[in-house]
Each structure stands twice: as C-alpha cells, then as structure tokens.
Design a protein that fits this description.
576 residues; 6-stranded mixed sheet; 32 strands; globular; 35% strand; mainly beta
Length: 576
C-alpha cells in the first residue's frame, strides 16, 4: 500500500512538472524573446590571407546571424572588450518604433559603450525581411564588426514565393590599414584618401595577392584556411532564397553567379515585383533576396563573384564557390570566373534601380502629396583647408551630447540651433562644374519635422572637386522606410520631375543610391518619435561630414534608459 501511495505521489509530481513545463513553454513561445550575449574585441584575422587586427564578436567576423520571427523581442548584451576604444552597434533596417534609444548610433541615439562596460540593447523586430547590424562608432564597421539579421514570418504564414532553402551572404570590401590610419589621413592637410580596398570579401572571405606587396614573413599566407573561398552547397533541382547584403566601406558592387540567373524578390525587407537579372548591382547598406535554382550541370561547381562598379577598380574580384552536392566543396570550377559588368556602365545601374517596384498584393500606397520638400545637394568642399563632404554647403559634425537626450531633456544649447538649409540655388548651380568658391561650413544643427507630416527628399548629385567625376552615394535613413518615387539624370527639375513620380507601386526601402550626376527622390512619413540619422553609408564620406539629423515627435518619446547617457551634458541624467 505504501509503495502504491509513493508511486502515485511520484506520478502526480511528474504530471505537475509536465504541466508546469508546458505552461512555461507556452509563455516563452508567446513572449518570444531572443537573447544573445556578445563579447566584442580585437583579434588577429586573415580574411583575405593578410593578417591584421579585426573587430570580432565572440571570435567571429562576420558576427553571429540574429534569427527571429516577426514580433519577437531581441536582447543583445554587448560587452566592450576593445580595451582602448568606445563602441556602438546599429541595427540597420530595424525601425526602433517605441525604442529610439536602442538605434545604436553614437552621438545621435546614445553615448558610446566604454571599454570594459556591458550594454543591453532591447528592441522588437516588427517586420519580416533581411536586415543587418554593424558598428556605428567612428569607422569601426570596416574593421569587421558586422553581421546579418534574418526575420521570418510568424508560424503558419508563407512568403509570396516558393523556395526550398534559405541562405545569407554579406559582401564587403577590406582594407589593410587600420581605421585610425584612414581617419587620420581623411582629417589631415594635405588630404590623404583611403584609396581603393585591397580585397573584396564574400561572407568574410577573400584572396589578396600576397606576392603583390612585400610584407613581413607570415603576415600574408595564401594557404591560410581563413581565406579559402566561401562555399555555398546546393542540392541539384532545389530552389534557394539567397539573401545578399552589402556593408562595403567604399565600393558599389555587382554580384553574379556563373551560369545562373537570379530572380529579385525582396529589397530592404519589402517584397519586390519579381524580375530576373544575371547580375545584381548592390550598394552599401542595401539588402536583397534573390531566388536561384540549382538547375545546371550537377557534375561540377560554379563561381560566385563580386566586382567593383562606379569607380575605376584596382581591386581583384571577390570569389566564392557554388558547390553542387555531392561534388567536393573545394573543387574549383573548370571555367574562368565571370568578370561582371563594366565598372562605368552607369546606364545599367540606373535601369536596375528603376526596375525595383513593389510586388502586386503587397503595395503600400504613398500619400498622394507631401507637406514638405527638402532638396539635398551632395558636394565635395573645403572647410578651413580640410577636404569635406557637404549637404547644401553644410558639412555635418556630431555633438558631445546625443541629440536624442538633448532634445528630450531640452539641452538644446549643446548644438547649433540654426536650422540647416532645405535647398540650394537651383537655377544657377551647375552640377557639372566645380564652383569658383568650394568653401563650406561646419554645423551640428538638425532638421525639425512636424510629427506625422509627409516629407519629400530629393538627393542631387554633382561633380567632385577634381572636376572629372561624380560619385555614387548610398543614403541610409534610420528609423524609417520610405517610398522610392524616382531616379533621374542631370539636375532635378522641381517643377517637371515630380510629374514623373511613381505613386502607383513604389518600392519601400531604407537605403537608396543617388547615381553620378543624377537625382533620387523619395517620400516618408515623419511618424516615428525620436531623432534619426540620415547619411551616406560610405564610411569615409560620413566621417567627412556627409550626413544630417531629423527630429520628429520628441514630445511623444517616453522615458529614456539611463544606459544611453553618461557623456557630454547627459552625465547624471536618468539616475534616480
């Protein structure tokens, strides 16, 4: 009898434990919190066979991929083990609705993370799609601190396109000089540009020609397994969703897969009306999904390549291998790698930008009109003899106190209160000629937008101070997606060109290129309370002043976490 009672008690306890475990599982499933712990530090790495210091996350560059479902909360605890450097990490494409202090932008949304400190980022991912994360302090991004964010649909929901497997790659360019050396040259008289990158990386792997430059013994080792080509293995007959992103410091790129067309289906987290390409032009900060079918000769492997466009290249193309199972993954394809398109074929790049439209059935119609239009002229200038980039003749600088904190706590004296210009001399400015006076001014002033209004932005490109080229600038807007209304060549005509806007099926994006001697127009709603950076995603250009800040609805921002404070005049704020 005692044994029976003991057995019943054990069974009741097990049943209770099972019920408790089930309840905990349901609660966890409903909460859907994805928790990551990262240690960021310098390590010696050889991504292109040349050993140098790189910033890693848990020993890796690129860092770990964040995997989540729509509606999940992401928590990332970041320990700064860089020893001598501050740190901030931006969640590129995540709008931070309700969490503007988690945008990860030093000087705008937060104070930097000090060496030895741990900072907790916490935010929701509200849309499915392909996104990125990367350093946003100084020029740290190009030192290796970057990675992917992949947000899937909730259980039971499906994409409007079919595929068997999901893969991600990040394209990057790679320099052998440190970010300190580069930043010092950019901030010097005489000016020293960063130059062309030494290598192009596909998912963190490239191949520098060790015989091209003398180096100390062991510094460059072509047989180092760290720089063996990235391999993507496919099963013949299957369809793959390949998420292709770019986080280059300088280069515009083309990506191609030998013998395979690609169907573009997503851009910056939004579904694209499908169209087929044999190469994908991609600019820093952009993300795409393409569908590829493994329908070629299965007895061999194929090249995946990336090459520089829009600048005359001196960098060897990046190489990776599309491995048809069961061929050996390191078996080189029997053919020469595809060279990619010509670097100066601007017409093809413009045509592909114009081909990206919202997918039928998933069109978010923009407001028919805007409340405000701001035209931003992109120029290269001099400020007190230093070479800078400017917008409407103003070169941007960051204050010591983050804008978000300063605006929330009415510390507006910490930066310039004069509003920056919303246009330039449209009638008389010649975008093809260097102006007689190339001088510009510095400012940390901001653009204040009336909350919930609709704003049109026109990006206008022009010649550089060298007088012979106009560069491609990829512009990224934090905190928002926007409708891409159109692209054009030459000088934007504020009376005629708006008549050509696509208001029927414009794609929504967060990063968009402005092509050489051209213009790009987009529309967005100032409906996300906070302070948001808008800048050229080329590291050197932003360092040299090519950016600005929008403030909207600051009175609707809730209490800010004390963890984002502690620098400038934010010291002591937020403490009990």
């Amino acid at each position: 009898m005692v044994e029976i009672l003991l057995y019943r008690r054990i069974m009741l306890k097990l049943l209770a434990l099972c019920l408790f475990t089930s309840l905990m599982y349901v609660q966890t499933a409903e909460a859907r919190i994805r928790h990551y712990k990262w240690e960021v530090k310098y390590e010696y790495k050889s991504p292109d066979c040349y050993e140098k210091l790189a910033i890693t996350i848990n020993g890796r560059s690129p860092g770990p991929t964040i995997l989540a479902q729509q509606g999940d909360t992401i928590i990332v605890e970041v320990k700064n083990s860089l020893m001598l450097e501050n740190l901030a990490i931006h969640w590129h494409g995540i709008r931070q609705i309700g969490t503007p202090g988690m945008d990860g932008t030093e000087g705008v949304s937060q104070c930097p993370i000090l060496p030895g400190d741990t900072f907790k980022y916490e935010f929701k991912v509200d849309r499915p799609g392909t996104y990125l994360y990367h350093a946003h302090y100084g020029m740290q991004r190009e030192a290796g601190l970057y990675g992917s964010i992949r947000v899937s649909l909730p259980d039971g929901e499906t994409e409007p396109f079919a595929y068997d497997y999901d893969r991600s790659i990040i394209l990057n360019d790679w320099y052998h000089k440190s970010t300190y050396e580069q930043a010092t040259g950019l901030s010097s008289i005489p000016f020293v540009f960063v130059g062309e990158p030494q290598s192009l990386l596909i998912q963190g792997r490239g191949k520098f020609n060790c015989s091209s430059t003398p180096s100390a013994p062991g510094v460059c080792n072509a047989s180092n397994p760290e720089c063996s080509p990235y391999v993507m293995t496919v099963i013949p007959g299957k369809t793959y969703r390949l998420r292709v992103s770019s986080l280059t410091a300088l280069s515009a790129l083309s990506f191609q897969i030998e013998g395979h067309n690609m169907t573009v289906v997503e851009a910056d987290g939004h579904y694209v009306e499908p169209f087929v390409v044999d190469n994908l032009f991609i600019y820093s900060g952009e993300t795409y999904s393409v569908l590829i079918k493994a329908d070629q000769d299965p007895s061999r492997n194929y090249w995946m390549t990336t090459n520089v466009v829009s600048r005359e290249p001196s960098t060897t193309n990046g190489l990776a291998i599309l491995n048809y199972y069961p061929n050996h993954p390191r078996r080189s394809p029997p053919t020469a790698p595809p060279a990619g398109p010509m670097w100066n074929d601007a017409a093809s790049r413009l045509a592909q930008s114009q081909a990206i439209k919202a997918r039928q059935g998933f069109i978010s119609t923009p407001p028919a009109t805007s409340n405000k239009t701001i035209v931003f002229l992109n120029t290269q200038n001099l400020v007190n003899g230093y070479t800078r980039w400017a917008v409407n003749n103003v070169s941007f600088t960051l204050p010591n106190t983050p804008y978000l904190v300063a605006e929330k706590y009415n510390l507006r004296h910490v930066y310039n209160q004069s509003p920056p210009p919303t246009g330039y001399d449209f009638e008389n400015y010649n975008i093809y000629s260097v102006p007689a006076n190339t001088n510009a001014s510095l400012s940390d002033g901001i653009y204040r937008l009336e909350f919930n209004t609709t704003v049109d932005i026109i990006l206008q490109n022009a010649v550089t101070m060298g007088g012979t080229t106009s560069e491609t600038h990829p512009w990224h807007l934090h905190g928002h997606d926007f409708w891409v209304l159109g692209y054009g060549t030459g000088k934007f005509d504020i009376n005629e060109d708006p008549k050509k806007y696509n208001l029927v099926n414009p794609i929504m994006k967060n990063t968009v290129p402005v092509h050489p001697y051209g213009w790009t127009a987009f529309r967005f709603k100032a409906d996300n309370p906070g302070v948001w950076l808008f800048h050229c995603h080329i590291e050197a250009h932003f360092h040299m002043g090519m950016g600005l800040v929008f403030q909207e609805g600051i009175e609707k921002v809730g209490n800010l976490p004390s963890s984002i404070m502690g620098c400038g005049e934010s010291k002591g704020l937020g403490n009990p």
